[in-house]
Amino acid sequence: MLLLEQILNGLLVGTYYTLLALGLSIIFSLGGVVNLAHGAFYAVGAYLIVFLSELIGFPVAFVVTPILVGMIGIIVETFFLRRLYTKDPILTLLFTFGLAMSAEQVLRLSFGASGIPFSIPEFLSGQLHLGSFIYSYYRLAILAVTTVSIGGLWLLFNKTSFGLIMRAGVADSEMVRAMGISIKPILSLVFAIGVGLAAVAGSMSASLTGVQPAMGNDIVTAAFVICVLGGLGSFWGVVFAGLLVGVLKGVTALYIPPAAEGSIYALMVLVLIFRPRGMFGIRFDRLE
Amino acid sequence: MNNKQTISRRGLIKGSIGGFAGLSAGALGAPAIINASDDTIRVGHITPRSGFLGTLGDYGFRGVNLAVEELNAAGGILGREVDLFSEDSVGSAVAPTKAQKLIEKRKVHFLIGEISSGSGGGVMATAKRLKTMYMQTGCNSDALRGEKCNPYSFHVEAGNTMYTKTIGNWQNRAGNVNGKDFYMLTADYAFGHDLARVSTRFLTENGGNVMANELVATNTPDYSPYILKIKAAKPDFVYINLAGADQTTFLKQYKEYGLNYAVSGGVMDTAGFWAAGIDSITGYWQSLWYHGMNTPSSQAFAKAFTQKYKKPPENQAWGDYIGVKIMAAAMEEAKSVDPAKIIPLLESGMEFDILKPRKGHFRKWDHSLLQQMFVVKVKDKAEMQDEWDIFEIVEASPGDNEKLDVIQPTQSENMCVMG
Q1: Does residue B25 surpass a pLDDT of 60?
Q2: What confidence tens digit (pLDDT) does each residue in B294-304 have?
Q3: Which range, of A95-99, A172-176, A202-206, averages the lowest pLDDT?
Q4: CA–CA separation, B110 vs B265, rounded Å?
Q5: 3-state class (DSSP) for residue B378
Q6: Which of B128, B145, B221, B35 is nearest to A253 (CA)?
Q7: Is residue A114 domain-resident?
Q8: What is the CATH number of the domain that holds A76?
Q9: Tens digits of residue pLDDT in A110-123
Q10: Cα–Cα distance, B67 to A11 (Å, whole number)
């Protein structure tokens, strides 16, 4: 029974990881950028929800936060990242690494190193009891938001002309340009959506963990592991890997608690040995 | 034509993993040099400024800064200006190197700081090897005062046994130990292991039953798997041996699930409780020092700190502040900066105003600061005067008429052979 609870709980937690990992994955797929600053956008999202909630209330702040962070993303992409796409990929790694450290320090200088308390909104507090299984309403709300976000992303990429151009850009950006379609605004938007997803995750976790400058660092390591496990560039691969990581952590915590956090790295090593592209990775010419 | 430069998949993943690992390990190790000249007293401050202990480290840094500022305003130490050199200790692999750098390159007269017991052991060994004094202000592991003790290291921070006995004796009197079941969550590194050991010893000696002890990785973002296990186990108390940001995360998520098993623990960091917020905390805890303390010197420190930093000091700020003040007083008394003169003086029982009702002094055989701790109760939300006002002090331990070493480990519990 406890095992069943952990599996169910792991699936629910997994959707949350998936949201973060999908943001990383789409940014990588189109621009080839491994966004080491993803955690910084996640942290900025958490700080924004804390301060905006006081001004305009949680529900509105929850909608506004990812939009604001997305706009920051567009600025970063337009003025900095865009110049680096055609250069050595190590430069984008260095740039986003520097951005992550700078953002953490800006948060530290602006709001202090101490954690800022932020409670679950009154209307989402409380728990759902299903037999012996217990789940908080807040986490159910997270589940709903992540499910809608993941579904929305899939529709955007697969059922719209924007998605068509984006997928074409992933396959061969030169050809898209040759067809007379500018890929630049697509790159900006995809980056904005990616970091916007990080901000959604950050604003949801503000009430579950401490809001502090370094909050994005570790969680994003897990998101990156999920991208690698699922296969860089694979939408459903990332979703599957996210859920798998959630379940793996829960089940390991049940039987071998000290290994719970480490288990996902062990899984990554195994997957990379047998499937270097990840479980559902697609072939990227520029990586082969 | 594709003019993009390429990188291999393997290279990209390696580079990215390095990047993410660097971020999560806290790569921000830039030293801070406040000022420097030759004929000065040089203080080497070393503490984690990033990672899950970064918040506490920041308080320590501010505490040590305020102490140095006050000393210089009053004419320095032995008439010499005090210089502060500060390093981010990052983690146990880096801390000893940073300590060595402070001693050999900056030529500091003594080291102060650290929070992680893993790192603190390394700093202590370096201090001993390079014959430099070290005021340890934040590591709780008893082992640092026991099997790892050395003549150059003095411990301002209270050890795990002191934290455990302070709250344990109080809970024991309230009938909350004998016959009760405790479910432990323990930070999976030196500090947590040591705390679980001394807590288990105390609880079982007093008739309690530790039904489980789960080791949890530091910086765990999600405690829901553990909370489900706690619910299934139905303990009388959840007992946390967690530090820093991990305290905050657990307390918030435990509140989220609405379980009504009381939470207690082997240690309490005020910063972690501030970050969790009054809605997520409840019950009785142990505190090394709290800014609401009513002694005049304590109030003066809290006021000066609040004026300078716009928020009250946390107990970690107290530790680093008082550590510098103790060294300054000892150097003045010894009229020397020579460890060979200061160490015997500290071992002789010299008393210091440590901003608590009773003065403190170091115990000779293990260099542990004999001092009072406090049982604190989480306030009702309605009684809070501001967001920092979360505790009321219930009692001091040891009390006015008790010996100062009643909460300390005995020699048989924590043997130290100074070597």
Answers
A1: no
A2: 999 999 999 99
A3: A172-176
A4: 33
A5: strand
A6: B221
A7: no
A8: 1.10.3470
A9: 988 888 889 899 89
A10: 51
Considering all CA atoms of chain B, what is the largest pairwise distance in Å, rounded to the nearest integer?
A: 86
Q: Does B234 touch chain A (CB under 8 A)?
A: no
Question: Among A53, A242, A61, which Cα is nearest to A146's?
Answer: A242
**ipTM of this predicted structure:** 0.86
B412–A contact, CB cutoff 8 A: no
pLDDT at B86 over 60: yes
A214 and B CB contact within 8 Å? yes
Mutation pick from A38, A212, A268 vs chain B, by most beta carbons of B within 10 Å, is: A212
Domain that holds residue A97: 2-107+124-287
Secondary structure of residue B125 in the 3-state scheme: helix
**Which residues on chain A are in Cβ contact (under 8 Å) with B312?**
none
Evaluate whether B16 touches A93 at the Cβ level (below 8 Å): yes
User: Taking 50 as the threshold, does the pLDDT of residue B2 lie above it?
Assistant: no
CB spacing of A101 vs B275 below 8 angstroms: no
Which of B16, B28, B215 is closest, CB to CB, to A93? B16
What average pLDDT does chain A have? 90
Q: Which long-range contacts (CB under 8 A, 24 or more apart) does B324-328 make?
A: B324/B43, B324/B64, B324/B67, B324/B68, B324/B71, B324/B112, B324/B135, B325/B67, B325/B71, B325/B352, B326/B135, B326/B154, B326/B156, B326/B352, B326/B354, B327/B43, B327/B110, B327/B112, B327/B133, B327/B135, B328/B67, B328/B71, B328/B77, B328/B82
pLDDT interval class at B22 (50, 70, 90): low
**Ordered DSSP codes for B215-267:** EE-TT-S--HHHHHHHHHH--SEEEEE--THHHHHHHHHHHHHT--SEEEES-
CB B159 within 8 A of CB B406: no
Residue closest to A249 by CA, chosen among A275, A274, A268: A268
Give the pLDDT band (50/70/90) at residue B6: low
Q: Does B280 touch chain A (CB under 8 A)?
A: yes
Going by C-alpha positions, the residue among B154, B217, B160 that lies closest to residue B191 is B160
Chain B CB within 8 Å of residue A210 CB: yes
| pLDDT of A256 strictly over 60 | yes
Sign of CA dihedral B398, B399, B400, B401: negative
pLDDT bucket at B113, cuts 50 / 70 / 90: very high
Q: Which residues pair with A172 in a beta bridge?
A: none
Q: Would you tell me which residues 211-230 of chain B have a C-beta closer than 8 angstroms to some C-beta of chain A? A: 214-217, 219-222, 224-226, 228-229
Integer Cα distance of B350 and B342 in angstroms = 11
Query: Inter-chain contact A134–B16, Cβ cutoff 8 Å?
Result: no
Contact between residue B162 and residue B408 where contact means Cβ atoms under 8 Å apart: yes
Whether B38 shows a pLDDT value over 80: the answer reads no
Residues 6+ apart with CB under 8 A from B328: B67, B71, B77, B82
B32 CB within 8 Å of a chain A CB: no
Q: What local confidence, expressed as pLDDT, does residue A285 receive?
A: 63
Q: Is B138 exposed, middle or buried (0-12, 13-18, 19+ CB in 10 A)?
A: buried
Helix (H, G, I), strand (E, B) or coil at B27: coil
Contacts of B143 (CB under 8 A, 6+ apart): B117, B121, B190, B194, B414
Top CATH class, B161-287+373-397: alpha beta
Domain total of chain A: 1
Residue B30 contacts A, CB cutoff 8 Å: no
- Portions of chain B given CATH number 3.40.50.2300: 32-158+293-370, 161-287+373-397
Helix, strand, or coil (residue B375): strand
In percent, the amount of chain B with pLDDT more than 90 equals: 82
pLDDT band with cut points at 50, 70 and 90 for residue B64: very high
Q: In CATH, what class is B32-158+293-370?
A: alpha beta
Decide if A119 is inside a domain: no
